[in-house]
Amino acid sequence: MSETILFLAHTEVDGSLSRVALEALAASISLNGLLVAGLIGADVQAAANGIGGCGARRFLGVAGEGFAASCYGADAAAVEALVRAAQATIVIAPQTSRFARCLAGVAQRLGGRIDTHVTNVASGPKVTRWYYRQRMEAVVERVQRPWFLLVESGTAPVWEGAPGAASLELIPVEVSPRTRVAGRQAPKAEQQTIRPDAKLLFVAGAGWTKKQADGAAHIDDAARLILGFLSATGASLGSSKSLVDLSGEGQAVLPFLSHMNQVGQTGSTPRHPKGLSTCCHGEEPHVVGWRFIRERRAVNLDANCGWSRGKADVLYVADAFAVIERVNAMLAERGVH
Ligand SMILES: Cc1cc2nc3c(=O)[nH]c(=O)nc-3n(C[C@H](O)[C@H](O)[C@H](O)COP(=O)(O)OP(=O)(O)OC[C@H]3O[C@@H](n4cnc5c(N)ncnc54)[C@H](O)[C@@H]3O)c2cc1C
User: Fold this and answer.
1) Which residue owns the Cα nearest ligand 1 atom 18?
2) 191 located within any domain
3) 304: Cβ below 6 Å to ligand 1?
4) Is 219 in the same domain as 142?
5) Mutate to test the pocket of ligand 1, among 134, 218, 241, 315 (most ligand atoms within 8 A of CB)
6) What mean pLDDT do residues 320-336 have?
7) Do 75 and 67 meet the contact criterion of CB atoms below 8 Å apart?
8) How far is the CA of 265 from the centre of ligand 1 (A)?
9) Tens of pLDDT along 76-107?
10) Residue 94, class by beta-carbon neighbours within 10 Å (0-12 exposed, 13-18 middle, 19+ buried)?
């Protein structure tokens, strides 16, 4: 059966499409079906032009101030209208928090099915996803249509085709007056330490808060070094469970860390190309969260830590305080801030 593939995306604050949206576009094209693009946002013409050369037969849009920010009612109505207008059998969208919130509801409304956290889309269509905290991988096929797929970031190549003037068909959609977006509050980009698109994952372990060779803990130095490294490199900050649990034990903590940063069995499994672990022992429940990190390095005082047992490509047996102090100085010398 020939499928009609709706590539679905929402614009960012500046009207562009995110990196993960362009990955979802590449996944949509790879199915070789009848491709339709569906965009949601305050104004979607620039985004449509940006992907003008993607080969879509139609460019559909739902636009207006009511669609600028994430809002369940407006987004669900917009997606429903786009799926109906495209007569889509497969809907491929990026796994953003905005779509994760509303697409399951739309799938239900349209009598379809949804699979989230998809890591591969292949002809068939067959989709790959992980279950049971990334321990089991399954390849799924479904007969129900429309079939909604939310594609994880970092799992498909970013679409890099040519832009072009897109002839946009705008679909009118009423915004429900019941919900009104009064404003948007988000931490400043430099305060946001979880950065899924970063090339490097920097993990801080509990060692940063432990007594050091002089018999004292150096929390302020740890915070300065970690934040200095993050601001110079744009790396994403991960943490071990022990470090984020410390606050519950009444110990001195690094204030910019929360359970959201935790990587591992009971934390996240991020997908950065490289990872650098510091002051973290590298125990299995933590390292299992590194399974998608392709190149791994660790800094630990202990030559027998978990990383030395085949879990890291390179282990530097060294004092992370001294190493990161020196790395930050070298970055500053090179003018990287
Ligand atoms: C069911 C279950 C689920 C779990 N889930 C997770 C999970 O999701 N994520 C997770 O992280 N853990 C998880 N754990 C806990 C995990 O087993 C470890 O206890 C935890 O990862 C240890 O954290 P850590 O390595 O930061 O701390 P520690 O074990 O205290 O290690 C600190 C390390 O810092 C090093 N160090 C100290 N000072 C320095 C210095 N100056 N320079 C360099 N190195 C230094 C030390 O040598 C040591 O290796 C789970 C455990 C269980 C039982």
Assistant:
1) 283
2) no
3) no
4) no
5) 241
6) 94
7) yes
8) 12
9) 999 999 999 999 999 999 999 999 999 999 99
10) buried
